Structure formats: C-alpha cells, structure tokens
Amino acid sequence: MEQETTIGEADIETGRAKGGLWCYKCSATAIPPSTSANGSHTQTPPCSRFDPYSLEFQVECSDSTFCLKKSSEMALNNGEIVRTESRGCAPQTYNYHSYSEGVGWSVQKAREDEAYEHGCTTDAANPAGLKVPSAEHCYCSKHLCNSAASIGGRRSVGERMVEEVVTVAQHTDAMAVIVVFNVVKYIRSLRGEDIY
C-alpha cells in the first residue's frame, strides 16, 4: 500500500503556500534575525523600506484571521513630530493551562477568531496631560490588506485602499485625456490644419 505525501498546494503566480491569511509585516525599526520553529532565520524588515511588491514584507499568519497596521505619532518638546508604523498579523492566540487525568497539567493554545472588528481605532487622549504617543490600530481580514500608506479619519483599511486606487485611477484618466489631446493636436499640425 503506497502512502502519498503532500507537501502543500502552492499558488502558481506567487509560489506561496495556499491556506492561511497573508499580511504585510514590517516594524518601526529593523528587528534582528531570530530562529523560527522550523529552524530558519527570519528578520523583520523596517517599514521605512516598505515595498508591497516585495516578498520580504509578506508573511502567512497561521495563528491569525486579521492583519494589523499600527501607526503612532508623538510631538517632541522642540516641535518635531515623530511618526512610526508597524504591520503584521494581529495577535489572536493565547496560552492557558489545562489538567487531564493521567497526563497532568499542560499548556494549551487557543485562538480568539472574533478578537477584532474591521476598521481603525484610535487610542484615547491622555487626560493627565503627559506626553505619550497617540496610536491608531487598523484591522482587516483580506489577503495583504494592511498596506495603506497613510492613516487618517476613521475609515477601514480596505476603504482607504479603495480610495487610493480611485485617486490613482482619476490621475490616470486625466493623463490619458492630456495624451489624446496632444496626439490629436500633433496630427492636425502634420496635416497643416489650424491647431487652435
């Protein structure tokens, strides 16, 4: 009897394994290499170099059903504003102890699937007047949905991405009109027609 071994299904275009949620991952500063569970060395790249087209910034979230983007800013005494951001898998797992007859105590891992709501939340202002960074946490549950370039308002990450695409599309349409106008103008000038 033959036993078939399946390594895993892969997406032909990206070469990535299918199955889990994929999110962008980067940190406010470069995090030194660490050894993962399978023995490979991984390093979280800094968001200052964020490139949504680079596989270096993409990670499969096996223990999460939400992607996270955290943005924070803090005004310094000299008036300068420091802004940071990080992206990754939203933490949804926790460990707890369980007792079983004959086995004893063991550590179990659980995942809270409905830990977050889609959209963004902003940390409340500090009533004591202390200088603390303000932070905004945005959660989404579609593949690579945490790529929004800037945070503002209380729209969801997905809505921001749509808004960015619409803005790019509007600019592309305007450029197309300008190009067509100039092509027609050029053809008329070749024919000797009055171009104005």
UniProtKB/TrEMBL annotation:
Give the protein name, as stated in the record: Protein sleepless
- Which keywords does this Swiss-Prot/TrEMBL entry list? Glycoprotein, Signal
- InterPro entries assigned: QVR-like
Would you kindly state one Gene Ontology biological process term found in this protein's UniProt entry?
Answer: regulation of synaptic transmission, cholinergic
Mention any Pfam family matching this sequence. QVR
